[in-house]
Amino acid sequence: MVRGRISQLSVRDVRFPTSLGGHGSDAMHTDPDYSAAYVVIETDAEDGIKGCGITFTLGKGTEVDWSREGCGAPGDSSCPKCGVGLVGQAGGKACLEVTCGHEKQMLAQGYPAYTTSCAWLGYSDDTLKQLCAQALKDGWTRFKVKVGADLQDDVRRCQIIRDMIGPEKTLMMDANQRWDVPEAVEWMSKLAKFKPLWIEEPTSPDDILGHAAISKALVPLGIGIATGEQCHNRVIFKQLLQAKALQFLQIDSCRLGSVNENLSVLLMAKKFEIPVCPHAGGVGLCELVQHLIIFDYISVSASLKNRMCEYVDHLHEHFKYPVMMQRASYMPPKDPGYSTEMKEESVKKHQYPDGEVWKKLLAAQEN
Ligand SMILES: C[C@H](O)[C@@H](O)[C@@H](O)[C@H](O)C(=O)O
Ligand SMILES: [Mg+2]
């Protein structure tokens, strides 16, 4: 039913200076400023219905004029992490009438999550220990640690985190594409003693057969391959699944353009019996993907076995409908829409380069 016409469209470059604290850092992206191209489509409908969309980048990636900036060169750590994938938040009715057991279970217990927030690569050992201790207190049982830049550092950091969480809790590792195929196998053979459930993005996300080779070598060591946060369409996922290149599939709500593209991947994963463990974090990715993974549980996979959704503890305060976490789980959102809308005040403050936050930072840099 048509309810008005599009009357206005705005695109804003919103950046958060996360690099100042090393938040979000990994072996490839050493100083990311979590950022978004934030789009609002307004209509002239009487009820004021509007659509909001985000594309997650690491700062410079938000600039339209890349080439002049020289952005896009391999190794430029501020290049866009995620491609263009607009997702909307349109008004509508929240559909939370309890109709099935799985839905009831989600409403009561939520969808299980793991945390990446303790172990970004740029964090000191002290910060790692402090955040890990706090996360354990808060009830987290699944942890992801960044690896891939320096083997000795990885061994030390993995030892710290494994000692702190004990042998039973789940540990995952993420190399953010840093290795080539033989290097990935060799490096992970050295980290196998820390019993990681998976190694994520061990090599280039485009190297489907490379992932298959790594998977063949590491599965006998009890290590699965997780990938998907850089996969931009269902065809890539189809090939990863057909080639038996992954044991955990990581959809990304923004990288895969549209909800429909995400749904087709959820259905393929079900057919291949591969658990979906979404990528989240960034700017708003937790807010968005929680809808998809809870839908997956209620309507597609009907299983929580080997399944969990990533959680990162940053920037939720800038969203109008932030995620609600309880006992290390995502509690189902009860507001209508895709939870994409940002607070106007946050957008204004963090707009690049003329928002209050950036004016101050850029002025300080000049002095
Ligand atoms: C640059 C970013 O923080 C990435 O390190 C992050 O998205 C990561 O790959 C993840 O799995 O959370
Ligand atoms: Mg990752």
UniProtKB/TrEMBL annotation:
Cofactor(s) needed for function: Mg(2+)
Entry keyword set: Lyase, Magnesium, Metal-binding
GO process annotations (BP): amino acid catabolic process; carbohydrate catabolic process
Signal peptide annotation: none
EC main group: lyase
Domain Mandelate racemase/muconate lactonizing enzyme C-terminal: 125-220
Molecular functions per Gene Ontology: L-fuconate dehydratase activity; magnesium ion binding
Reaction(s) catalysed (UniProt annotation): L-fuconate = 2-dehydro-3-deoxy-L-fuconate + H2O
EC number(s) stated in the UniProt entry for this protein: 4.2.1.68
Family in the record: Belongs to the mandelate racemase/muconate lactonizing enzyme family. ENOSF1 subfamily.
Protein name, per record: Mitochondrial enolase superfamily member 1
Species in which this protein is naturally found: Cercocebus atys
